[in-house]
Write a structure and sequence with these properties.
Blueprint (H helix, E strand, L loop, with lengths): L17 E4 L3 E2 L1 H7 L3 E5 L4 E2 L13 H9 L1 H10 L16 E3 L2 H18 L2 H17 L2 H15 L3 H11 L5
Parallel strand pairs: 1-3, 2-4, 3-5
Helix pairs in contact: 2-3, 5-6
Length: 175
C-alpha cells in the first residue's frame, strides 16, 4: 500500500528502472528520475525541483526521496531554493550512477548498464534484491532484514537459476 502512489510504484516494479536524464528535467520530470532505481545524467542537463520558485511545496515525494539519496543538507538546498543544478555539479552527491559528457553518451551508458545487468545477473536475484532494497528502506528493522535475507537465500539456492550459476562456475563458462 505504501507504494501505491504516483512514482512510488516504481519501487514495486519487478525489474530495475533506469533513468537517463539528457536535457531539461524539472519538477515532476525530476520526480520520475528520482524514483528510478538507477540514474544516469548528461553533464550539462539542467535539473530543478522548480516548486519553490512557483510558490509551491515539494512535490511528488521529493521531500521523502531526496534526503535518502543525498542527505538532509543537500536535499534542503535543492528543495528550498529550487535552483538549477547539473549532473556535473552534483556528480559526487550520490544522485547519479554515471555522468556523461552529452545526451547521446548518457543514453548509451544507461543502455549499456541495462544490458550488462540483463546478461550478467540472474533475473530472480535482481527481482528479489530490488524487493529487499525497498522493503528494508521502508521498515527500518535490521533484524527483520537479516531474517528475511536468510530465508530468501535458502529459497534462492533451490532455484534453477542458482543451479545454473553454480554449474557455469564449475565449468568455467558464462551462465
Amino acid at each position: 500500500a505504501e507504494l501505491d502512489e504516483d512514482f512510488a510504484f516504481q519501487f514495486a516494479v519487478r525489474f530495475p528502472i533506469i533513468a537517463a536524464v539528457n536535457g531539461a528535467c524539472a519538477g515532476v520530470g525530476l520526480a520520475v528520475a528520482l524514483f528510478a532505481d538507477l540514474r544516469f545524467g548528461s553533464a550539462s542537463a539542467k535539473c530543478t525541483t522548480a516548486a519553490p520558485k512557483l510558490g509551491l511545496p515539494a512535490e511528488y515525494g521529493m521531500s521523502w526521496q531526496l534526503p535518502r539519496l543525498l542527505g538532509v543538507t543537500r536535499a534542503a538546498d535543492l528543495l528550498l531554493s529550487g535552483r538549477v543544478f547539473t549532473p556535473a555539479e552534483t556528480e559526487g552527491w550520490g544522485l547519479w550512477n554515471g555522468v556523461e559528457p552529452d545526451g547521446e553518451q548518457t543514453l548509451a551508458a544507461a543502455l549499456a548498464y541495462a544490458h550488462r545487468l540483463a546478461t550478467t545477473a540472474g533475473p530472480h536475484a535482481v527481482r528479489t534484491t530490488k524487493h529487499q532494497l525497498y522493503t528494508d528502506l521502508l521498515r527500518h528493522d535490521p533484524a527483520a532484514a537479516i531474517a528475511d535475507a536468510q530465508r530468501l537465500l535458502g529459497d534462492a539456492t533451490a532455484t534453477a537459476e542458482y543451479r545454473e550459476v553454480v554449474a557455469a562456475l564449475r565449468e568455467r563458462r558464462p551462465p
